[in-house]
Design a protein that fits this description.
Structural class: alpha+beta
Strand content: 15-25%
Order of helices and strands: EEEHEEHHHHHHHEEHHHH
Radius of gyration: 22 Å
Largest sheet: 5 strands, mixed, barrel
Strand order of the largest sheet: 1-2-3-5-4
Oligomer: single chain
Number of domains: 3
Number of strands: 7
Number of helices: 12
Helix content: 25-40%
């Protein structure tokens, strides 16, 4: 059993069953005050640690207290779990802000289960396989940026939706590059170099959009600029460095715009945050692969088949998927 830095033991979320007494620190995800049917306020959130997450409710709260409770992104929570619609839910009895130290973060934040060094080597190898000297020079400006690559290896890919764990951005990017590398031979008319650089860069701005030292949240850059715009701004800086490395040779404007377009359009729709719709074959391919990996990861996370307990058939509704997820693997029931 894991221990906090002060020696107290931590109860993993994956070990909770209905009726489990809880008294410990957890990360808060999407905390908010909402009205009950009678109009009185209650507090709801997801509580998370390195082993999983569950929904939690405090059925009576002073709305003015919520800001203090959520100040650090972590809370010490006392309460009891119960079964609600086939899911374990935590009924909070007492909650107060908690200040974790570095040792606590290893317990309270989820991490990739993959080898980070190996994943980064795979990404680097695929990106160094591009044929265009200009795109290869551009790739090198990113891979040689130690601070940027350190954040790339550490950052989550999202606050709560998909790959929301330390190393999630790297894992998501590696997965996309491997899917593309395997499927691009089926689409020989696509520009392979453009697809690969687009996938590598599409979410790279999340290394500065998100912070993960106090739970997962948005930075000032994330709130005011966002990873899409930041990614395009960073591309402009890196193109200038690549041009210098190429002896002053200028990046062709159509190539620059096509890379920018992939970054700008990868969310697929304006209502999802992209200022333009995917309008090149490569941009459409990148957007669809991104959507495939993100939604598949969300579905697998909601199913959480490794921790499925008797009576747990469906997940809660996943709003990004607009449905609940059937959790059992049907082949395991044969």
């Amino acid at each position: 059993m894991a221990q906090y830095s002060d020696g107290r033991y931590h109860l993993n979320i994956s070990d909770m069953t209905s009726g489990t007494r809880v008294d410990g620190a957890y990360s808060l995800v999407n905390p908010q005050v909402a009205p009950k049917r009678d109009g009185s306020p209650y507090f709801k959130c997801l509580v998370r640690d390195a082993t999983g997450q569950i929904s939690a409710r405090l059925w009576s709260i002073d709305p003015d207290a919520a800001e203090e409770i959520t100040r650090t992104g972590y809370a010490w929570i006392s309460g009891c779990t119960e079964n609600y619609k086939d899911q374990i839910q935590l009924k909070i009895e007492e909650i107060k802000p908690y200040e974790p130290d570095d040792a606590d973060l290893a317990i309270l934040l989820p991490h990739t289960t993959q080898d980070v060094t190996m994943m980064f080597e795979e990404v680097s190898d695929i990106m160094r396989s591009v044929k265009s000297p200009m795109i290869r020079a551009l790739v090198d400006t990113y891979l040689d940026d130690d601070q940027l690559m350190r954040r790339f290896r550490q950052a989550p890919a999202a606050v709560a939706l998909h790959h929301a764990f330390i190393g999630g951005l790297l894992e998501h990017t590696r997965q996309l590059l491997k899917i593309a590398d395997a499927s691009l031979p089926l689409y020989p008319e696509l520009n392979r170099d453009l697809v690969l650089i687009g996938l590598f860069l599409h979410d790279l701005g999340k290394g500065y959009e998100l912070q993960w030292q106090r739970g997962f949240d948005y930075t000032l850059t994330g709130n005011l600029v966002g990873h899409i715009v930041f990614g395009v701004q960073l591309l402009g800086v890196k193109i200038k460095i690549a041009e210098q490395a190429l002896g002053g040779e200028r990046f062709p404007l159509p190539l620059r715009h096509c890379i920018e377009h992939i970054i700008l359009s990868h969310h697929g729709k304006r209502e999802y945050g992209s200022p333009v719709l995917p309008s090149t074959p490569e941009a459409i391919f990148v957007s669809q692969l991104d959507n495939l990996d993100a939604k598949t990861a969300m579905a697998l996370s909601a199913a959480d088949r490794a921790n499925l307990k008797p009576g747990q058939t469906f997940s809660e509704k996943i709003w990004a998927l607009e449905t609940k997820i059937y959790r059992p693997d049907p082949s395991s029931q044969l």
